[in-house]
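note to self: dont lose this again. the chain is below, predicted strucutre after it. 348 aa total, dont forget to put it in the shared folder this time
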Amino acid sequence: MTSNQLINTNIKSSHVLLTPNEVKERLPLTKVTEHTVLKFRQEIENILDFKDNRKFIVVGPCSIHDPQAAIEYAEKLHNLAEKVKDKILLIMRVYFEKPRTTVGWKGLVNDPDMDDSFHVERGILIARSLLIKLAELGLPTATEALDPIIPQYLSELIAWSAIGARTTESQTHREMASGLSMPIGFKNGTDGNINVALNALRAAKTPHHFLGINQKGQVSVFETRGNQYGHVILRGGNQPNFDVENVMLVEAELKKSGLPPRIVIDCSHGNTNKNYKLQPVVFENVIQQIIDGNTSIVGVMLESNLYEGNQSLTGDLQDLKYGVSVTDQCIGWEETEEIILAAYTKLK
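---
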Protein backbone atom coordinates (compact mmCIF):
# COMPACT_ATOMS: atom_id res chain seq x y z
CA MET A 1 0.00 0.00 0.00
CA THR A 2 1.32 3.46 -0.92
CA SER A 3 0.52 6.84 0.58
CA ASN A 4 -1.41 7.69 -2.59
CA GLN A 5 -3.98 5.11 -1.54
CA LEU A 6 -4.47 6.86 1.81
CA ILE A 7 -5.01 10.52 0.87
CA ASN A 8 -6.91 12.40 -1.83
CA THR A 9 -8.57 9.24 -3.08
CA ASN A 10 -11.57 11.25 -4.28
CA ILE A 11 -9.58 14.27 -5.52
CA LYS A 12 -9.32 14.40 -9.29
CA SER A 13 -7.02 17.42 -9.53
CA SER A 14 -5.88 20.57 -7.73
CA HIS A 15 -4.60 23.98 -8.78
CA VAL A 16 -2.51 26.47 -6.82
CA LEU A 17 -4.16 29.92 -6.69
CA LEU A 18 -2.49 33.29 -6.66
CA THR A 19 -1.96 34.40 -3.07
CA PRO A 20 -4.04 37.28 -1.66
CA ASN A 21 -0.94 39.49 -1.84
CA GLU A 22 -0.42 38.65 -5.52
CA VAL A 23 -4.05 39.44 -6.33
CA LYS A 24 -3.81 42.76 -4.47
CA GLU A 25 -0.61 43.67 -6.32
CA ARG A 26 -2.52 43.26 -9.57
CA LEU A 27 -5.61 45.09 -8.30
CA PRO A 28 -4.55 47.45 -5.49
CA LEU A 29 -6.77 49.74 -3.48
CA THR A 30 -6.77 53.46 -4.27
CA LYS A 31 -7.15 56.31 -1.80
CA VAL A 32 -10.73 56.72 -3.03
CA THR A 33 -11.63 53.07 -2.44
CA GLU A 34 -10.08 53.10 1.04
CA HIS A 35 -11.99 56.24 1.95
CA THR A 36 -15.29 54.85 0.62
CA VAL A 37 -15.10 51.59 2.56
CA LEU A 38 -13.93 53.15 5.83
CA LYS A 39 -16.54 55.91 5.62
CA PHE A 40 -19.46 53.57 5.06
CA ARG A 41 -18.34 50.96 7.60
CA GLN A 42 -18.33 53.75 10.18
CA GLU A 43 -21.78 54.94 9.09
CA ILE A 44 -23.20 51.42 9.39
CA GLU A 45 -21.61 51.03 12.83
CA ASN A 46 -23.16 54.34 13.88
CA ILE A 47 -26.59 53.10 12.79
CA LEU A 48 -26.06 49.87 14.73
CA ASP A 49 -24.96 51.89 17.79
CA PHE A 50 -28.13 54.03 17.44
CA LYS A 51 -25.93 57.14 17.08
CA ASP A 52 -27.34 57.67 13.56
CA ASN A 53 -31.12 57.46 13.27
CA ARG A 54 -31.07 56.54 9.60
CA LYS A 55 -31.85 53.01 8.38
CA PHE A 56 -29.79 51.04 5.88
CA ILE A 57 -31.14 49.07 2.95
CA VAL A 58 -29.07 46.26 1.41
CA VAL A 59 -30.42 46.15 -2.13
CA GLY A 60 -29.29 44.59 -5.38
CA PRO A 61 -29.14 41.39 -7.42
CA CYS A 62 -29.57 38.03 -5.75
CA SER A 63 -26.19 37.22 -7.28
CA ILE A 64 -23.75 38.96 -9.61
CA HIS A 65 -23.13 37.14 -12.88
CA ASP A 66 -22.58 40.03 -15.32
CA PRO A 67 -20.19 42.80 -14.15
CA GLN A 68 -21.41 45.16 -16.89
CA ALA A 69 -25.03 44.89 -15.71
CA ALA A 70 -23.83 45.27 -12.11
CA ILE A 71 -22.10 48.56 -12.94
CA GLU A 72 -25.23 49.87 -14.69
CA TYR A 73 -27.29 48.93 -11.63
CA ALA A 74 -24.72 50.56 -9.34
CA GLU A 75 -24.87 53.85 -11.26
CA LYS A 76 -28.64 53.95 -10.86
CA LEU A 77 -28.37 53.04 -7.18
CA HIS A 78 -25.75 55.71 -6.55
CA ASN A 79 -28.04 58.37 -8.02
CA LEU A 80 -30.91 57.15 -5.84
CA ALA A 81 -28.65 57.02 -2.78
CA GLU A 82 -27.89 60.72 -3.12
CA LYS A 83 -31.61 61.53 -3.06
CA VAL A 84 -32.37 59.64 0.15
CA LYS A 85 -29.08 59.83 2.07
CA ASP A 86 -30.40 61.97 4.93
CA LYS A 87 -32.82 59.20 5.98
CA ILE A 88 -31.62 56.00 4.27
CA LEU A 89 -28.17 54.53 3.65
CA LEU A 90 -28.27 52.39 0.50
CA ILE A 91 -25.78 49.50 0.33
CA MET A 92 -25.44 47.53 -2.90
CA ARG A 93 -25.89 43.79 -2.60
CA VAL A 94 -22.88 42.24 -4.40
CA TYR A 95 -23.11 38.50 -3.81
CA PHE A 96 -20.36 36.48 -5.51
CA GLU A 97 -20.87 33.10 -3.81
CA LYS A 98 -24.12 31.14 -3.75
CA PRO A 99 -24.85 28.39 -1.22
CA ARG A 100 -26.87 25.61 -2.84
CA THR A 101 -29.40 23.34 -1.18
CA THR A 102 -28.24 20.51 -3.46
CA VAL A 103 -26.39 21.54 -6.66
CA GLY A 104 -26.39 24.51 -9.01
CA TRP A 105 -24.29 27.47 -10.12
CA LYS A 106 -22.07 28.43 -7.18
CA GLY A 107 -21.52 32.06 -8.09
CA LEU A 108 -19.13 34.31 -9.99
CA VAL A 109 -16.09 33.65 -7.80
CA ASN A 110 -16.36 29.88 -8.15
CA ASP A 111 -17.52 29.64 -11.75
CA PRO A 112 -17.20 32.96 -13.62
CA ASP A 113 -17.80 31.37 -17.05
CA MET A 114 -20.97 29.67 -15.79
CA ASP A 115 -20.05 26.39 -17.47
CA ASP A 116 -18.70 24.27 -14.58
CA SER A 117 -15.12 25.15 -15.56
CA PHE A 118 -14.49 26.65 -12.09
CA HIS A 119 -11.81 29.17 -13.01
CA VAL A 120 -11.71 30.43 -9.43
CA GLU A 121 -8.64 32.61 -9.87
CA ARG A 122 -10.33 34.47 -12.73
CA GLY A 123 -13.48 34.77 -10.65
CA ILE A 124 -11.58 36.35 -7.75
CA LEU A 125 -9.94 38.88 -10.09
CA ILE A 126 -13.27 39.80 -11.72
CA ALA A 127 -14.94 40.16 -8.31
CA ARG A 128 -12.16 42.34 -6.89
CA SER A 129 -12.08 44.51 -10.00
CA LEU A 130 -15.83 45.09 -9.77
CA LEU A 131 -15.67 45.94 -6.05
CA ILE A 132 -12.96 48.51 -6.73
CA LYS A 133 -15.08 50.15 -9.45
CA LEU A 134 -18.11 50.31 -7.16
CA ALA A 135 -16.05 51.82 -4.32
CA GLU A 136 -14.61 54.40 -6.72
CA LEU A 137 -18.18 55.25 -7.69
CA GLY A 138 -18.83 55.94 -4.00
CA LEU A 139 -21.10 53.01 -3.17
CA PRO A 140 -20.86 50.78 -0.09
CA THR A 141 -21.17 47.07 -0.89
CA ALA A 142 -22.54 44.03 0.92
CA THR A 143 -21.96 40.33 0.39
CA GLU A 144 -22.43 36.92 1.97
CA ALA A 145 -19.32 35.51 3.65
CA LEU A 146 -19.43 31.87 2.56
CA ASP A 147 -16.00 30.40 1.82
CA PRO A 148 -13.68 31.19 4.75
CA ILE A 149 -10.69 31.78 2.44
CA ILE A 150 -12.28 34.33 0.07
CA PRO A 151 -12.35 37.23 2.61
CA GLN A 152 -8.55 37.36 2.45
CA TYR A 153 -8.91 38.36 -1.22
CA LEU A 154 -11.90 40.69 -1.08
CA SER A 155 -12.96 41.71 2.43
CA GLU A 156 -11.25 45.11 2.64
CA LEU A 157 -13.63 46.27 -0.11
CA ILE A 158 -16.82 45.19 1.69
CA ALA A 159 -18.78 47.48 4.05
CA TRP A 160 -21.28 44.90 5.39
CA SER A 161 -21.53 41.11 5.33
CA ALA A 162 -24.10 38.45 6.07
CA ILE A 163 -23.86 34.86 7.21
CA GLY A 164 -26.55 32.86 5.43
CA ALA A 165 -29.31 30.70 6.89
CA ARG A 166 -27.48 27.49 5.92
CA THR A 167 -24.23 28.51 7.62
CA THR A 168 -25.33 30.50 10.69
CA GLU A 169 -25.06 27.31 12.76
CA SER A 170 -21.54 26.58 11.45
CA GLN A 171 -18.70 26.96 13.95
CA THR A 172 -16.34 27.81 11.08
CA HIS A 173 -18.49 30.77 10.03
CA ARG A 174 -19.00 32.01 13.57
CA GLU A 175 -15.24 32.00 14.10
CA MET A 176 -14.66 33.71 10.76
CA ALA A 177 -17.29 36.36 11.59
CA SER A 178 -15.54 37.10 14.88
CA GLY A 179 -12.51 38.23 12.90
CA LEU A 180 -14.14 40.08 10.00
CA SER A 181 -13.53 43.82 9.89
CA MET A 182 -17.06 44.89 8.94
CA PRO A 183 -20.48 44.63 10.64
CA ILE A 184 -22.06 41.23 10.12
CA GLY A 185 -25.64 40.00 10.08
CA PHE A 186 -26.66 36.43 10.96
CA LYS A 187 -29.80 35.05 9.36
CA ASN A 188 -32.20 32.82 11.24
CA GLY A 189 -32.22 29.16 10.19
CA THR A 190 -33.94 28.01 7.01
CA ASP A 191 -36.79 26.63 9.13
CA GLY A 192 -37.19 29.97 10.93
CA ASN A 193 -35.22 29.00 14.05
CA ILE A 194 -34.09 32.22 15.77
CA ASN A 195 -31.95 30.54 18.42
CA VAL A 196 -29.24 29.57 15.94
CA ALA A 197 -28.80 33.24 15.03
CA LEU A 198 -28.75 34.32 18.69
CA ASN A 199 -26.15 31.66 19.48
CA ALA A 200 -24.12 32.81 16.49
CA LEU A 201 -24.21 36.43 17.68
CA ARG A 202 -22.93 35.44 21.11
CA ALA A 203 -20.20 33.29 19.57
CA ALA A 204 -19.06 35.89 17.03
CA LYS A 205 -18.64 38.68 19.59
CA THR A 206 -16.16 36.62 21.60
CA PRO A 207 -12.47 35.94 20.74
CA HIS A 208 -11.58 32.75 18.84
CA HIS A 209 -8.61 30.89 17.42
CA PHE A 210 -8.98 29.23 14.03
CA LEU A 211 -7.05 28.09 10.96
CA GLY A 212 -6.92 30.07 7.75
CA ILE A 213 -4.51 31.49 5.18
CA ASN A 214 -2.60 34.74 5.56
CA GLN A 215 -1.89 37.28 2.81
CA LYS A 216 1.07 35.21 1.62
CA GLY A 217 -1.15 32.15 1.22
CA GLN A 218 0.39 30.37 4.21
CA VAL A 219 -1.76 28.29 6.54
CA SER A 220 -1.93 30.23 9.79
CA VAL A 221 -3.59 30.25 13.19
CA PHE A 222 -5.64 33.42 13.71
CA GLU A 223 -6.63 34.90 17.05
CA THR A 224 -9.61 37.25 16.86
CA ARG A 225 -10.89 40.07 19.07
CA GLY A 226 -14.56 39.28 18.43
CA ASN A 227 -16.95 41.26 16.24
CA GLN A 228 -19.02 43.72 18.28
CA TYR A 229 -21.28 44.67 15.36
CA GLY A 230 -23.23 41.47 14.87
CA HIS A 231 -26.99 41.60 14.39
CA VAL A 232 -29.83 39.24 13.55
CA ILE A 233 -31.49 39.05 10.12
CA LEU A 234 -35.08 37.82 10.01
CA ARG A 235 -35.53 36.04 6.68
CA GLY A 236 -38.56 33.89 7.51
CA GLY A 237 -38.62 30.12 7.42
CA ASN A 238 -41.56 27.76 7.40
CA GLN A 239 -43.55 30.92 8.13
CA PRO A 240 -42.75 34.63 7.59
CA ASN A 241 -41.34 36.44 10.63
CA PHE A 242 -41.25 40.10 9.61
CA ASP A 243 -44.50 41.05 11.39
CA VAL A 244 -44.83 43.16 14.56
CA GLU A 245 -45.37 40.17 16.86
CA ASN A 246 -42.30 38.27 15.67
CA VAL A 247 -40.13 41.38 15.79
CA MET A 248 -41.21 41.98 19.40
CA LEU A 249 -40.41 38.37 20.32
CA VAL A 250 -36.94 38.66 18.80
CA GLU A 251 -36.36 41.97 20.59
CA ALA A 252 -37.19 40.26 23.88
CA GLU A 253 -34.87 37.32 23.12
CA LEU A 254 -32.02 39.66 22.21
CA LYS A 255 -32.39 41.58 25.46
CA LYS A 256 -32.69 38.34 27.44
CA SER A 257 -29.43 37.16 25.88
CA GLY A 258 -27.68 40.44 26.71
CA LEU A 259 -27.41 41.38 23.04
CA PRO A 260 -28.16 44.81 21.52
CA PRO A 261 -31.67 44.98 19.98
CA ARG A 262 -30.52 45.23 16.36
CA ILE A 263 -32.73 43.62 13.72
CA VAL A 264 -32.55 43.57 9.93
CA ILE A 265 -35.54 42.34 7.94
CA ASP A 266 -34.95 40.36 4.74
CA CYS A 267 -37.94 41.12 2.49
CA SER A 268 -37.33 38.03 0.35
CA HIS A 269 -36.85 34.28 0.96
CA GLY A 270 -39.13 32.85 3.67
CA ASN A 271 -40.73 36.22 4.33
CA THR A 272 -42.37 36.12 0.90
CA ASN A 273 -42.64 32.34 0.56
CA LYS A 274 -40.19 32.93 -2.34
CA ASN A 275 -42.72 35.06 -4.25
CA TYR A 276 -40.63 38.04 -5.32
CA LYS A 277 -43.72 40.11 -6.13
CA LEU A 278 -44.48 40.24 -2.39
CA GLN A 279 -41.21 42.00 -1.51
CA PRO A 280 -42.75 45.50 -1.73
CA VAL A 281 -45.58 44.38 0.59
CA VAL A 282 -43.11 43.17 3.22
CA PHE A 283 -40.96 46.27 2.74
CA GLU A 284 -43.90 48.64 3.26
CA ASN A 285 -44.94 46.73 6.39
CA VAL A 286 -41.44 47.08 7.86
CA ILE A 287 -41.23 50.78 7.04
CA GLN A 288 -44.59 51.26 8.74
CA GLN A 289 -43.29 49.51 11.87
CA ILE A 290 -40.42 52.00 11.94
CA ILE A 291 -42.80 54.94 11.48
CA ASP A 292 -44.98 53.55 14.27
CA GLY A 293 -42.05 53.79 16.66
CA ASN A 294 -40.00 50.59 16.37
CA THR A 295 -36.35 51.35 17.13
CA SER A 296 -34.83 47.86 16.90
CA ILE A 297 -35.21 47.54 13.11
CA VAL A 298 -31.97 49.03 11.80
CA GLY A 299 -32.07 47.77 8.22
CA VAL A 300 -33.89 46.02 5.41
CA MET A 301 -32.82 43.70 2.58
CA LEU A 302 -34.27 43.62 -0.95
CA GLU A 303 -33.44 41.43 -3.96
CA SER A 304 -33.56 43.69 -6.99
CA ASN A 305 -32.11 43.76 -10.50
CA LEU A 306 -32.35 45.88 -13.63
CA TYR A 307 -35.32 43.79 -14.74
CA GLU A 308 -37.71 41.64 -12.74
CA GLY A 309 -37.94 37.86 -12.46
CA ASN A 310 -35.20 35.35 -13.16
CA GLN A 311 -33.97 33.01 -15.87
CA SER A 312 -32.44 29.56 -16.10
CA LEU A 313 -28.94 28.73 -17.28
CA THR A 314 -29.47 26.81 -20.52
CA GLY A 315 -25.84 26.24 -21.46
CA ASP A 316 -25.69 28.98 -24.10
CA LEU A 317 -24.83 32.26 -22.37
CA GLN A 318 -25.86 34.17 -25.49
CA ASP A 319 -29.44 33.28 -24.65
CA LEU A 320 -29.34 35.09 -21.30
CA LYS A 321 -31.41 38.26 -20.98
CA TYR A 322 -29.39 41.27 -19.89
CA GLY A 323 -29.98 42.46 -16.33
CA VAL A 324 -32.13 39.49 -15.25
CA SER A 325 -31.18 37.27 -12.30
CA VAL A 326 -29.92 33.73 -12.88
CA THR A 327 -30.64 32.72 -9.27
CA ASP A 328 -33.56 33.98 -7.13
CA GLN A 329 -36.27 36.13 -8.68
CA CYS A 330 -35.85 39.89 -8.18
CA ILE A 331 -38.01 42.95 -8.47
CA GLY A 332 -37.02 45.34 -11.30
CA TRP A 333 -35.24 48.67 -10.99
CA GLU A 334 -38.28 50.88 -11.59
CA GLU A 335 -40.22 49.22 -8.77
CA THR A 336 -37.14 49.31 -6.52
CA GLU A 337 -36.72 53.05 -7.01
CA GLU A 338 -40.43 53.65 -6.50
CA ILE A 339 -40.71 51.85 -3.15
CA ILE A 340 -37.48 53.31 -1.76
CA LEU A 341 -38.53 56.85 -2.66
CA ALA A 342 -41.94 56.19 -1.08
CA ALA A 343 -40.23 54.93 2.09
CA TYR A 344 -38.01 58.00 2.14
CA THR A 345 -41.03 60.29 1.91
CA LYS A 346 -42.70 58.48 4.81
CA LEU A 347 -39.56 58.54 6.94
CA LYS A 348 -39.16 62.27 6.40
